[in-house]
Design brief:
Length: 549
């Protein structure tokens, strides 16, 4: 079946096509080279529309144990935001912690067709994959959390060498069917088990005697040598702590030239200047990112309103639970290898800290010069629900709109930000980069994030409107693999997505070694821990991302 989308203004920065009126031709779910009209092809008139590839969210907590705990903790969220009844919906709901069905519907209604869960704990990986398979209309993938697991820390502490670490990392990626490695507070969660309440980059942790720097560098080298496309996805030390800008700058300096992705950088950009001892470090962070082309970031923008934070960084969440709003929280251990903290937050523009956090995130977006190295996220749900993306896009594209909001926030916060001095407005090309082309490139997804021949037939038509929030909230049309799934912002079809994974090779001796480890130290067998290809997407199996060793 062939579909022709004609007459729209195409923005496809990955192929250097910017604001050109041209046809997009889709056949059997993929975009093909333009060709003369053929009898029987479907024609979609895109006149007056902006044509983009399907959106890709690099970092959004959509599935797995902590997300499920968030849903349990925030049951009022579903009552306040029920799924509307209709031909395709009517079950579940929620905004801060939406159900799987609502997650897929809300994302596709904004024009997103792929979303990546950035914190899959190995012991919970099967649960995460089952939930991702239940999300309609979007493709997914998971980032495996390492850096506090005892087997890895023991390998490093005992000096077993880089190849042993590489084999372990490859085994874990294969076993959990994930596509990248994330580190959460390297060594910090393990230190928490020994009553550690803080661990800086060059501070030696208890028991294993390792610094976060050493853990980070070891895993950076492993990912690079295995050829995993996405670099280490790092949630660094001292999240949310005033003065952590120094740690973040030191972390950039510690990367030793290896590519490094710093996630939710907004939470790691705080100084201690001023009478309130809380200030913006965005200028220093942006300057460092601009000067180091091997560094990329996603922002984790704060959006005002109710949400729930869910993180493997129990050290940080334990610190934050005293300011939970409403007053309830969950903290737990997971197989002694990882942890989880779930704390509800209500970000208020009348709060000095929250208002300055909001401004810091926007400063980072606007001061980092290369849009290919900064990705649009709210660290859903930690900075705010992903449904706030259209509002965030307008804040980036519309300075008068941004200034109007700046004028409403806490007065003292306004005095601590240089946001009013920044005149930059994102262009449509830059929005296409930060929400499509750049995430696809860093994840190694060659058939996504663009509209060239061979790309997936994920295409979005947005009605050109001066109000960018309205424009990006309700696309005229969304096609997933060539099928129309959304019309004028309403879901009209539910389709299955796919799951991305990497399968790097490893020494088979690691099988025996980990079988012994699981028997001796873990509450389940290694064979049960490993997820078979046939368990992914109801037997469909994963789509394997090509390695670049």
């Amino acid at each position: 079946m062939r579909t022709r989308i004609t007459g729209g203004r195409v923005f496809d920065p990955a192929n250097a096509i910017i604001d050109q009126v041209r046809d997009i031709l889709i056949e059997d779910g993929r975009i093909i080279a333009d060709a003369p009209p053929a009898p029987g092809e479907d024609v979609i008139d895109a006149t007056g529309a902006i044509v983009l590839a399907g959106g890709i969210d690099l970092h959004s907590h959509i599935a797995g144990g902590k997300v499920n705990l968030g849903r349990l903790l925030m049951n009022e969220d579903r009552l306040l935001h029920p799924e509307p009844f209709g031909d395709f919906c009517g079950c579940g709901g929620g905004r801060a912690a939406p159900t799987t069905h609502a997650t897929g519907c809300r994302y596709s209604q904004m024009g997103y067709t792929a979303v990546f869960e950035p914190a899959v704990v190995g012991a919970n990986a099967r649960h995460a994959h089952l939930e991702m398979a239940d999300i309609p209309n979007i493709d997914t993938g998971g980032f495996l959390v390492l850096g506090n697991d005892d087997f890895l820390l023991r390998l490093i502490a005992q000096g077993e060498g880089q190849q042993a670490v590489n084999d372990y990392v490859a085994w874990m990626l294969r076993a959990t069917q994930c596509c990248a490695i994330k580190i959460v507070n390297p060594g910090g969660i393990n230190a928490f088990k020994f009553n550690g309440r803080a661990l800086d980059l060059d501070e030696t942790g208890p028991f294993y005697g390792l610094t976060p720097r050493r853990i980070l560098n070891t895993l950076q080298r492993a990912v690079s040598e295995l050829g995993v496309p996405h670099p280490i996805h790092l949630h660094g030390c001292n999240l949310g702590v005033p003065g952590n800008v120094k740690t973040t700058l030191a972390t950039i300096g510690a990367s030793e030239g290896f590519p490094l992705h710093l996630t939710h950088i907004q939470f790691h950009s705080y100084g201690t200047e001023g009478d309130r001892h809380f200030s913006s470090g965005s200028a220093e962070i942006a300057e460092a990112v601009n000067a180091n082309p091997h560094i990329s970031v996603d922002v984790g923008q704060i959006m005002f309103g109710q949400t729930v934070t869910a993180s493997a960084d129990l050290m940080s969440q334990y610190r934050n639970h005293k300011i939970a709003d409403p007053k309830k929280w969950i903290g737990m251990d997971i197989e002694m290898d990882a942890a989880c903290g779930v704390v509800p937050f209500n970000y208020r523009d009348t709060s000095f800290v929250n208002a300055l956090q909001w401004a810091i995130g926007l400063e980072l977006f606007l001061l980092i010069e290369d849009p290919w190295r900064v990705y649009l996220t709210t660290d859903h749900p930690n900075g705010g629900p992903f449904t706030s993306y259209p509002h965030l896009i307008r804040l980036l594209m519309d300075k008068p709109f941004r200034d109007d909001h700046l004028g409403r926030i806490h007065k003292a916060a306004r005095a601590h930000t240089r946001l009013a001095e920044i005149s930059r407005e994102y262009t449509l090309e830059e929005i296409a980069v930060v929400t499509r082309a750049a995430p696809a490139r860093t994840l190694g997804l060659r058939d996504r994030g663009h509209l060239g021949p061979g790309a997936r037939g994920d295409v979005v038509l947005y009605e050109e409107q001066p109000d960018r929030e309205a424009m990006f909230a309700a696309p005229r049309l969304v096609l997933k693999d060539g099928k129309v799934v959304v019309v004028n912002g309403e879901v009209v079809e539910l389709v299955d997505g796919r799951t991305y994974a990497v399968h790097p090779p490893y020494d088979p001796l690691m099988d025996k070694r980990l079988e012994r480890w699981f028997d001796e130290a873990v509450g389940l067998k290694a064979n049960h821990y490993r997820i078979a290809d046939g368990e992914i997407r109801n037997g469909q199996g994963p789509e394997i991302v090509e390695l670049n060793p």
